[in-house]
Write a structure and sequence with these properties.
With about 280 residues, the chain is of the alpha+beta class. The chain is built from 10 helices and 14 strands. Bound molecules: flavin-adenine dinucleotide. InterPro entries: CO_DH_flav_C, CO_DH_flav_C_dom_sf, Diverse_Substr_Oxidored, FAD-bd_PCMH, FAD-bd_PCMH-like_sf, FAD-bd_PCMH_sub1, FAD-bd_PCMH_sub2, Mopterin_DH_FAD-bd.
């Protein structure tokens, strides 16, 4: 199918983009287009105006320091995956990004775009939520920071207002002596996962984040649970559902198996880093 007609604007500055969004309630931001363009073509989205942010300078930065990794709105998945500094400061980014789609999609798709697209089957919203990250957004009213816990309000729905642009996302650094791990099962490598799990072990605290299980990115606390029981304990806090890709029973089994694997792997990372 072809998209419904829309107007197109490629502003050269952020204020120009924000003014255009504020003046048109049905406008949408276009970043990498890897989710939005298919939605347009299937007529599941029909914005009156596309505000293409790709001409705005200074939005593609990847900055890693002791506090964490900050990604600009135009940092492509592929560039984040290739950044040795980002990998060193927060290894969970690369672990998860290696599973995001295929190389051609990662070359164009942006990590911030994926985060605000709020797909419960996507890897990076779960990573941001598990790590306690945040998104910096701008509008004609000014800027604000949205913590990941306040970002996801429903399936494919974030708490950004229609005229806000996410200018960057911040992922906290891996604390010294902490460990992370990520695993997912997909029919083919690069497909959306049937179930994916990320784990963070930091001191006594053990948490795991889930994609393609609930209808929003979901994190559960597994502190104090023996590793061999983490899968069952996680399942008590989740609601795997049937869809055309997998049954609820199969998803529940994936939750059990993957949770134990990633919690064990994150513990192993802690042991390796302390020897
Ligand atoms: P766009 O498509 O440009 O935009 C997506 C949505 O976010 C739109 O509503 C847009 O208005 C909004 N938006 C984007 N950027 C901003 C911003 N800075 N501020 C405000 N709103 C913004 N993703 C995965 O996570 N895992 C996968 O396994 C996976 N597989 C894929 C397979 C295929 C075949 C395809 C086509 C895509 C797949 N994707 C997958 C999606 C891909 O990761 C996209 O890149 C990502 O979802 C959106 O990023 P984008 O920059 O392309 O955003």
């Amino acid at each position: 199918m072809k998209p419904a007609p829309f107007a197109y604007l490629r502003p050269g500055s952020l204020p120009e983009a924000l003014a255009a969004l504020a003046g048109e309630p049905d406008a949408k931001v276009l970043a990498g287009g890897q989710s939005l363009v298919p939605l347009l073509s299937m007529r599941l989205a029909a914005p009156s105006l596309l505000v293409d942010i790709n001409g705005i300078p200074g939005l593609a930065d990847i900055d890693a320091d002791a506090s964490g990794v900050r990604l600009g709105a135009l940092a492509r998945h592929a560039d984040v995956l290739a950044s040795a500094e980002a990998r060193r400061v927060q290894p969970l980014l690369a672990m998860a990004l290696a599973n995001v789609a295929h190389a051609t999609i990662r070359n164009r798709g942006t990590t911030v775009g994926s985060i605000v697209h709020a797909d419960a089957a996507a890897e990076m919203p779960v990573v941001l939520t598990l790590l306690g990250g945040s998104v910096e957004v701008a509008s004609v009213r000014g800027t604000r920071t949205i913590h990941a816990d306040d970002l996801y309000v429903g399936p494919l729905e974030s708490s950004l207002a229609h005229d806000e642009v996410a200018v960057s996302a911040h992922f906290p650094a891996l604390p010294a002596g902490a460990g992370v791990a990520f695993e997912e099962i997909a029919r083919r490598h690069g497909d959306y996962a049937l179930c994916g799990v990320a784990a963070l072990v930091d001191g006594d605290t053990v948490r795991a984040g889930y994609l393609s299980v609930n209808d929003v990115p979901t994190v559960v606390d597994l502190t104090g649970v023996p590793i061999s029981e983490t899968g069952a304990a996680a399942l008590e806090q989740l609601e795997p559902a049937d869809d055309i890709h997998a049954t609820a029973a199969y998803r529940a089994q994936l939750v059990r198996v993957l949770t134990e694997r990633v919690v064990r792997a994150a513990h192993d990372m802690v042991s390796t880093s302390s020897t």
